[in-house]
């Protein structure tokens, strides 16, 4: 089994101009719990996760503030920082005691496209509870997907510098890559990179307890008035269910469940032809993927590249 210094995806942090509306949506409809709040800043947890929070919202111009990753211990944090320095990666700050909510020890960098990444350990965890049968709320953060103008360059950065591995790829009939799914642990993917017209957030995905809870959750969000842009269905790559919605800020967010687990020593990456309907949706319940559907997740140009957030 491959031993990586990055253990898992912890949280996503977004800045949104309609902060109050966005916060209300994620608490009242999406099913997250606010565990800490400041003026224009909200930390939201999933009831089924020991992570202190899985989503941070901040009032500001729309952007991705950062993606937060977990590291097993302080020695691994220092080893990862040393590796990235040797690779001439640009740092936001060096390994240090973190003073924000939940604390910890870690550092921040810019990835090759200018997104801010945080790597941390030793933070305060929370007591998770078992999600009840038929309870339509997220159990945890599943994965985070970025749009990139140069798909292969972005994916290669995560492979070369953070030891991520491509689990599967989506390709056009002519063989051109359209999406790469990358893992840092047995989960089929913790991040993915999609070909897009600009760098931006493609979507955030939240794991539900099971199929029943996922389907009830999708119905709940539809009744909230949010628009489902694709689904419900079941992907081929990752074998997970999907139901994609637009949040009030125009970000694509997903309820999913049953994401595949893979064995590093046995798994062979596949190249799935996006023109085949079974690649898009094994069940055939979702509308066929089209340029109009794909465009929904292009999102606004991320104006936060190579600009560190204030918190």
Automatic annotation (TrEMBL):
PROSITE patterns named among the record's database cross-references: VOC (PS51819)
Protein name, UniProt field: VOC family protein
A Pfam family hit: Glyoxalase
InterPro entries, A to Z: Glyas_Bleomycin-R_OHBP_Dase, Glyas_Fos-R_dOase_dom, GlyoxalaseI/FosfomycinResist, VOC_core
Gene3D superfamilies registered for this protein in UniProt: 2,3-Dihydroxybiphenyl 1,2-Dioxygenase, domain 1 (3.10.180.10)
Domain VOC span(s) in chain numbering: 8-122, 140-258
